[in-house]
Each structure stands twice: as structure tokens, then as C-alpha cells.
Design a protein that fits this description.
There is one protein chain. This protein is 55% helix and 14% strand. The protein is of the alpha/beta class. It has one domain: P-loop containing nucleotide triphosphate hydrolases (Rossmann fold), CATH 3.40.50.300. The chain starts with a strand and ends with a helix.
């Protein structure tokens, strides 16, 4: 039986990375094998590209091309083989992040992102996506004191464009994309995650 593909999305500071282990542990009660991975990243090559993307200023189109190069390697080497073997995957970000960050955030044309998606992972989409949502104020509070990458240093207008695009994705695909109020207390967030994972 083919594995399931679960992705975690959201604005910086929403805490999605904090909940990745919980989601993986919960899925381990349903699936024989569960792995965790991230984007950009997940392979040696993709991790090197991640470092370059997060630290070096570049044109939005260049950034998008590098992210999809990392994604294509990740899908080829890790994601597709794992799913085909029946393994369930929990991935910190996937193509929805490119739609929100590079598309809405930085103005990269949607048709370019669509073409790159088709090239990098034709026929592959997450079975369930969680968008961890919070206000700009909550995000900044959580990022305070942390060494920030260049995405985390973006201004409020960028944050709001990204956030709004994520919420639009959830409205457009309610069966796949579920919004989690990331400002809630931890027990409430975990309860919401469990409820939205039960039907996988």
C-alpha cells in the first residue's frame, strides 16, 4: 500500500517545526513506517542549496529555480521511493510554500511556479497539508532573540501577503489543506491536529 504524504506549512514563527515530531508520532500509530524531512532540504544536495537560499541575496526567479532544483532532487531521491515503499512522510514545507513565499510574497508569476511544479513532481501532491496560522505580532514575538534568515527578516507587508495566500489555498482546497490556529495553547493545537489526521 502506498504511503501518505503530510506537509506542514505556514508563516515564519507560527511554530510548524515545533509540531512536526508530534504529527510523526501520531501517524506512527497508524502507519508501519514514518519519516520526517524538510524543504528546501532532505538530501545532501538539497541541504547545500538550502544554505545558499537562506543566506544569500538573490533575484526572486533565481531563488525559485534553486528551490525547485532542491525539491526535484528531494522528490526523486527520498519522497517518491518512500511513498512507493509504503512509508508515510511528514515534510516541513513543500510547493505550497513556493506559491505563498515566492509567488505571493515576491511576485514570481504563478505560471512559472506551476511549470516548475509539473517538472519537479508531476502527479505528486500532499494527502494532507496543515497551515499553521498566526498574526504578525505573534510571529515576531516567537522569533525574538533568534538568529534570523533572510525570509524571517522580511517586513510586515511580505508576511501578510504570504499569510493571505496560505489562507486562500485552504479555501480553495479544503479537503487537503487545514488551517491550524497556531496562537492557541499547545494542547488545543495538538487536539486539532489529531482530529484532522484521523481520516488519513
Amino acid at each position: 500500500m502506498k504511503g501518505r504524504f503530510v506537509t506542514l506549512e505556514g508563516v515564519d514563527g507560527a511554530g510548524k517545526s515545533t509540531h512536526q515530531q508530534f504529527v510523526a508520532d501520531f501517524l506512527a500509530t497508524k502507519a508501519p513506517h514514518v519519516i520526517q524531512t524538510r524543504e528546501p532540504g532532505g538530501t545532501d544536495l538539497a541541504e547545500r542549496l538550502r544554505e545558499a537560499i537562506l543566506q544569500n541575496p538573490m533575484a526572486p526567479e533565481v531563488e525559485t529555480l534553486l528551490i525547485f532544483a532542491a525539491r526535484a532532487d528531494h522528490v526523486t531521491r527520498v519522497i517518491r521511493p518512500a511513498l512507493d515503499a509504503g512509508t508515510w512522510i511528514v515534510c516541513d514545507r513543500f510547493t505550497d510554500a513556493s506559491v505563498a513565499y515566492q509567488g505571493a510574497g515576491k511576485g514570481v508569476p504563478a505560471d512559472l511556479i506551476q511549470r516548475l511544479s509539473a517538472a519537479a513532481h508531476a502527479g505528486l501532491a500532499p494527502d494532507r497539508t496543515f497551515v499553521f496560522d498566526c498574526s504578525y505580532e505573534v510571529s515576531q514575538q516567537r522569533l525574538a532573540g533568534k538568529k534570523l534568515d533572510r525570509f524571517e527578516r522580511e517586513d510586515r507587508a511580505f508576511f501578510e501577503r504570504v499569510r493571505n495566500r496560505y489562507l486562500e489555498l485552504a479555501k480553495a482546497e479544503p479537503r487537503r489543506v487545514r488551517v491550524i490556529d497556531a496562537a492557541q495553547p499547545l494542547p488545543e493545537i495538538r487536539k486539532a491536529l489529531e482530529c484532522n489526521l484521523a481520516d488519513l
